[in-house]
Amino acid sequence: MTDAVLGDLEPSAVRVRFPPSPTGMLTVGNIRSALFNWAFARHFGGTLVLRIEDTDTSRNTEEGYRYTYDALRWLGLNWDEGPEAGGDFGPYLQSERMDIYADVVAKLMAAGKAYHCYCSQEELDQRREEARTAGQHSGYDGHCRNLSPEQVQAYVDEGRRPVVRLRMPDRPIVFDDLVRGEITFLPENLGDYVLVRANGYPLYPLVNPVDDALMEITHILRGEDLLPSTPRQIALYEALAEIGVGSGRTPRFGHLPMVMGEGNKRLSKRDKGSGLTEYVERGFLPEGLLNYLALLGWSIAEDRDVFTMAEMVEAFDIRKVNSNAARFDPKKCEAINAAHMRLLPQEEFAQRMIPFLATAGVLAEQPSEEQLAVLRAAVPLVQERMNTLSESDEMLGFLFVDEDAFRVDPDAAAKVLTGDAHAVLDAAAKALADLGDTEWATEAIEAALRASLIDGLGLKPKNAFGPVRVAISGRRISPPLFESLELLGREKSLHRLERARRTT
Length: 504
Hints:
Catalytic activity: tRNA(Glu) + L-glutamate + ATP = L-glutamyl-tRNA(Glu) + AMP + diphosphate
Number of strands: 11
Enzyme class: ligase
Keywords: Aminoacyl-tRNA synthetase, ATP-binding, Cytoplasm, Ligase, Nucleotide-binding, Protein biosynthesis
Distance between the termini: 81 Å
Binding site for ATP: 269
Function: Catalyzes the attachment of glutamate to tRNA(Glu) in a two-step reaction: glutamate is first activated by ATP to form Glu-AMP and then transferred to the acceptor end of tRNA(Glu).
Radius of gyration: 32 Å
């Protein structure tokens, strides 16, 4: 009995691929595809191949290659074969496989599976328009399928340079999509398509199936936007099998749902929130971002949104991917990330905050033991309040910034350090000054301020503690006030209260 997903394959024989181009940033759609391929391979104990689509040399950059590798490693989506990993099916850069493609095309031509097409663009356009006018299919009409030697010579004498087209079968192409079920494409809608341009340059519809065949890829999980090309690729896989290229096995396809952005439009790489770099800079956790992207078409359970990648690998079933388009929700993405931040051990949370505090210039990349002690003590105060690591400076920067560089946010000052704020700060400074260094602790600080500001001045907590919070943190929102004062220390706290009092 064969498995619905594996067929007669052993699980460990599963081979999937992720084929990005080194032309720019990875988008959330790219990452979702990489994640599903990675989870699929890991679930079965199979192999994930990283293959770089770099045949468009005019758009490739050295930075693009490096970015791709670094981005996947930052995400934790490590590959088993490919650049920097090696493997038995290389090279894994398509730009280094041009001789392979030329050899395969020659074999297809010799076997009659492909042929030269000499039609000019003007002729193609004219015949397509005539077909549309007649209500017929406007794809390629097979004009050059069976040219006589004399016709070929006539075109050659005219100086025409032919493209190479695949001879499509005159029958329906039917396949069982792992996400969408059985799909049928009728032959009248599948014209012979171009494999090689007139300048000899191989195209995507050739190089990807050839690489899949030679690299023995068993399953292809990719976006639904590529679904229209699938029957053509299946026809090429079959032709390759007939001429002895590859394993002879046609890969199984699973077309993943489209990722939609605002206005129910496909999320474009030009849209805000679509590129990985933004999430790295904002301090998303890789595991948080991946968790959310997994939800764009798949779920681990109806009543559960937060899970680890190990749990995803164990539970992943491509047959349970929803075929409907998935909408990217930035707020939910941030909420899932926040949930993963809560799950981090406190020491790890502190370590992940350091680069962001260092980037803000308030902490050294290698903090002192004294600074680390303060940071560790502050983590329990903020871990439940933060959504991304880029909030580190906003929440804790005031604890580390040099006094001469400390500034009160102008908006906070305008809204809080007005009216009775001077009297509040004056009373707070006097109450706290009565505490010695040995008494400077959260409980004593709270008792002193409550006695002075609430009991003494008769203020409500918001009006009593708001000015003190802004004076010592520079912001209207901070970690708990009394704990913050203890961590900041007596000398700095009194200095900031005095400075705020003088300017109020």
